[in-house]
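Appendix B. Chain record.
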Amino acid sequence: MGTKVEHRGGARPGSGRPTKSKDGARVTFSVMISPVTRRRITELRAAGVKLGEAIDAMVAQLAAQYDID
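Structure tokens predicted for this chain:
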């Protein structure tokens, strides 16, 4: 008999969680905020608000206001 070759482990094509963003993978960005803003963020998250998406929309609105692409 021949030797049996096992293919276990390693990355598999098409596996993993697909990105939700049409712009590709999300990136981490860190900021300093006031304690009041931090409390509000905590409450918004508890209410189900997706903060990354909300910040993307807010920055897009500000960018349009200042004619930034």
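Further analysis of this model is presented in Appendix C.
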